[in-house]
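Please fill in the sequence for the structure shown.

STRUCTURE ENCODING:
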């Protein structure tokens, strides 16, 4: 994803500009570029960049969303301006629900506080407490557009605001040189209107998303990697978005140690074929995926751990703990200078017949010496 161009070790705005030049042949941003959907979309990093560098403000605190101003709250979360739950109730398709123009970035606390409140309810409160905070996130200020029945019009208006702001940023970065803003392949100037809706896959409901989050939490509890939700599968040659995998591990559940895997819930055979062609091992239910993890990941890890433990010298092994009033386990046979001590169920060891003779001889010698 192009977000790496901003946050990677060699990242920054210059890197992002270069990525966009190579991918699109120019830098001019059109409103239609924000038609794409999900956090895997190409213009998701542009939205993030605008938020960080153009004074976007948090709707809870009113502070600008810059790390130096937020301190411990500097981590941002994606917020659906029109809540997913409300849109699904209104029978809005997943492509529009997860459209980039319905995304903004907020601190975790603010995101949780807003929850699934409708914009027509929480927008006036934000504007009253923090005037200008909505506009700082390129929200159209016509209250009629804040109603769910006008969601499509809201998206159109916000796409225009985002595109205008992005072009202003690039113009400033290029010191007024507009060649890269104009010299763009016309074929790339817009995304077909149907493109977002025709992308295969993606999370289709709130219930499905919750199931994926729970699975990720379970994996983390097992010490394994979390999967990437709505992972973008792209053509390696053209960069074209082919599909969205519900939950994917491109580097394996154990990073770089296990195979590529993906969880695809209620998806088409066509999507399964695409994922398989990209060398993903696919699972179609949470339980079958968990069975795979237990059988092939956790079990194998346990065997490796046992093998490593048994290869250690006795002095390196950790003693076993006793629990409660559980009697001690029989001790192994121990060899000593006095002979062989056989273990029993008792906590003490009894010397063998040969050892008792040697002890008697030593006592006699001691008595004589005394």
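FILLED IN BY: designer on duty
SEQUENCE:
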């Amino acid at each position: 994803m192009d977000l790496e161009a901003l946050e990677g070790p060699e990242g920054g705005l210059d890197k992002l500009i270069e990525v966009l030049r190579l991918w699109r042949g120019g830098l001019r941003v059109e409103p239609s570029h924000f038609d794409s959907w999900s956090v895997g979309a190409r213009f998701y990093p542009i939205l993030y960049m605008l938020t960080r560098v153009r004074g976007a403000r948090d709707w809870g605190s009113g502070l600008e969303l810059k790390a130096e101003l937020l301190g411990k709250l500097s981590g941002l979360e994606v917020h659906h301006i029109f809540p997913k739950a409300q849109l699904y109730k209104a029978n809005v398709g997943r492509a529009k629900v997860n459209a980039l123009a319905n995304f903004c970035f907020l601190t975790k606390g603010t995101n949780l506080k807003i929850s699934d409140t409708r914009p027509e309810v929480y927008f006036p409160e934000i504007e009253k407490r923090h005037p200008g905070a909505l506009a700082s996130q390129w929200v159209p200020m016509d209250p009629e557009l804040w109603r769910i029945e006008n969601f499509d019009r809201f998206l159109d208006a916000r796409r225009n605001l985002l595109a205008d702001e992005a072009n202003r940023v690039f113009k400033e970065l290029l010191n007024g040189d507009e060649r890269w803003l104009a010299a763009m392949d016309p074929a790339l100037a817009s995304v077909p209107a149907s493109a977002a809706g025709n992308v295969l896959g993606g999370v289709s409901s709130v219930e499905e998303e919750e199931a994926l989050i729970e699975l990720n939490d379970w994996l983390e509890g097992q010490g394994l990697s979390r999967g990437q939700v709505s992972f973008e599968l792209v053509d390696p040659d053209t960069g074209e978005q082919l599909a969205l995998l519900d939950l994917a591990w491109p580097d394996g559940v154990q990073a770089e140690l296990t195979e590529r895997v993906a969880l695809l819930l209620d998806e088409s055979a066509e999507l399964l074929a695409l994922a398989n062609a990209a060398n993903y091992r696919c699972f179609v239910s949470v339980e079958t995926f968990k069975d795979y993890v237990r059988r092939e990941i956790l079990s194998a890890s346990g065997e490796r751990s046992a093998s490593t433990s048994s290869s250690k010298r006795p002095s390196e092994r950790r003693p076993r703990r006793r629990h409660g009033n559980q009697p001690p386990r029989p001790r192994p046979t121990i060899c000593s200078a006095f002979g062989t001590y056989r273990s029993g169920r008792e906590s003490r060891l009894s010397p063998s017949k040969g050892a008792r003779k040697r002890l008697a001889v030593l006592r006699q010698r001691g008595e004589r010496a005394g």
